[in-house]
Design a protein that fits this description.
- The protein is built from 11 helices and 14 strands.
- It is an alpha/beta fold.
- Strands 3-4-2-1-5-6-7-12 form an 8-stranded mixed sheet, with helices on both faces. A two-stranded parallel sheet has the order 8-11.
């Protein structure tokens, strides 16, 4: 199989590439390596894949560790995307590249339209022009917005976003369904819930809190700690993606409009979350226990664009793939903390 992974230098893209690189598939990863957060972390992920991304000048860089893995520095907003699809004739596309971050979308809205909307349109157009067997793309639990019916299921309405980031991810789902309906592109959107683990994003709470606690600096605890998040360990996310790859949607001609995760078009949506929301203060206590240090807490009101709770119902994923995330929080935090200490020499 020829597989394209967009956003390979990102958190999930790196872990997915590492997992797939031990298979017999041929993998091409692309990434623009923007500076939304520390590029050294992104270069570190690529280096761990055996890729010297700094040496890339518009051509493919082959991994020294995995002979079936190559990297091309490329922005999904670029017009050359179709040429890439034509050259490699991908069987599967796993689209993870996006401008991430809820709070960043409040001050940099243009980047979300350019990357998450126009960039995704470029992916869809490339897949239309050069058909693929299955397009899998990253959505987000953020699409549920201010919805208060929990746990969130794919049947819940997702039309009240709390941020432009959430709106851009919901637009991806609608755009993908449109292209599945019009052009027969099999597509699956994956709604990820608060992903954490080794090589995680520095703008996420596990990373921010760990750094602050180890440096004996205060942590910002929003909504005065009255928050719940469905923290999902990275290996569980990757396993979910792997299970979905061969499950190519065909559409349901008997669909009656009652289940929004299903459609007469070859398009599906799945939640991937741990299914066990954790109180923010309990999460902090777990982190304190693992690090052996007490956090200095700075309690603050809710931030714009945030939501008080997320909770994934993963019964659809389990029904169709036989899998649901299982990693307990304390185990995942131990793995993350060990990586953090090693990577930063703490």
């Amino acid at each position: 199989m020829n597989i394209l992974i967009t956003g390979i230098a990102g958190f999930i893209g790196y872990h997915l590439a590492k997992r797939l690189a031990v298979s017999d598939s041929e993998i091409i990863g692309i990434d623009t390596i923007n500076d939304y957060y520390d590029v050294n972390l992104k270069y570190g992920r690529l280096a761990d894949l055996g890729i010297d991304a700094r040496a890339v000048a518009g051509s493919i860089a082959h991994s020294t560790r995995y002979p079936n893995l190559g990297f091309i520095r490329l922005n999904i907003k670029d017009d050359v995307l179709k040429a890439l699809f034509q050259e490699y004739q991908f069987d599967y596309v796993i689209h993870l590249a996006a401008q991430a971050g809820v709070r960043y979308s409040l001050t940099n809205p243009d980047e979300y339209i350019a990357s998450n909307v126009q960039g995704f349109l470029n992916i869809l157009e490339a897949a239309r022009t050069h058909p693929v067997k299955h397009l899998i793309y990253a959505s987000s639990s953020s699409v549920y917005g201010i919805n208060t019916i929990q746990p969130f299921t794919e049947n819940n309405a997702a039309d009240h976003p709390a941020s432009l980031y959430a709106a851009s991810k919901r637009s991806n789902e609608l755009m993908a369904h449109c292209y599945s309906h019009l052009f027969g592109i099999p597509s699956t959107g994956l709604r990820f819930f608060t992903v954490y683990g080794p090589w995680g994003r520095p703008d996420m709470a596990p990373f921010l809190f760990t750094r602050a606690i180890l440096e004996e600096k205060p942590i910002d605890v929003f909504n005065h700690g009255d928050m719940r998040r469905d923290f999902t360990y990275i290996d569980d996310i990757v396993e979910g993606i792997i299970r979905v790859i061969p499950r190519i949607p065909t559409g349901d001609p008997a669909w009656d409009g009652a289940t929004s995760g299903i459609s007469p078009a070859p398009a599906r949506l799945y939640n991937i979350g741990n299914g066990a929301p954790i109180r923010l203060l309990d999460f902090i206590e777990t982190l304190e226990a693992v690090l052996g240090k007490t956090a200095r807490k700075n309690f603050l009101p809710m931030q714009a664009g945030d939501v008080p709770a997320t909770w994934a119902d993963c019964s659809a994923l389990e029904r169709d793939t036989g899998y649901r995330p299982t990693t307990p929080l304390n185990q995942g935090i131990k793995h993350f903390a060990a990586w953090y200490r090693e990577f930063y020499g703490v």
